[in-house]
Design brief:
The protein is α/β, with parallel strands linked by helices. The protein is built from 5 helices and 5 strands. β4 (60-64), α4 (69-80) and β5 form a beta-alpha-beta unit. The chain starts with a strand and ends in a 6-residue tail after the last helix.
């Protein structure tokens, strides 16, 4: 499984790299706080929604959840569906939120 850490993700954001941030937390968690420009597809609906929400299989996708567990499941699922550039955000939103003001 490919991974990315928060400093690397922040660098991608600064460089305006083309990628998707896929938040697989619940709607309630997402509404509380989220990474800007991310899209919400809760893990329990990912199997039904991934083809509509992620039509470009070649774009880099960064999966995020609270701590990294659900996003690792999402990363493995999408990789198994033929998406070659899927990354799990190490430490999830919990770690990302510590770097918000960087």
């Amino acid at each position: 499984m490919k991974t990315i850490n928060t400093p690397e993700l922040k660098e991608w954001q600064k460089q305006n790299k083309e990628f998707v941030i896929l938040d697989v937390r619940s709607k309630t968690e997402y509404e509380d706080s989220y990474i800007p420009n991310s899209i919400l597809v809760p893990l329990d609906t990912l199997e039904k929604e991934f083809t509509n929400k992620l039509p470009n299989k070649e774009i880099a996708i960064v999966c995020v959840c609270h701590s990294g567990s659900r996003s690792s499941l999402a990363t493995n699922f999408l990789t198994g569906q033929g998406y070659p550039n899927v990354y799990n955000l190490v430490g999830g939103f919990m770690i990302y939120s510590m770097f918000v003001n960087d």
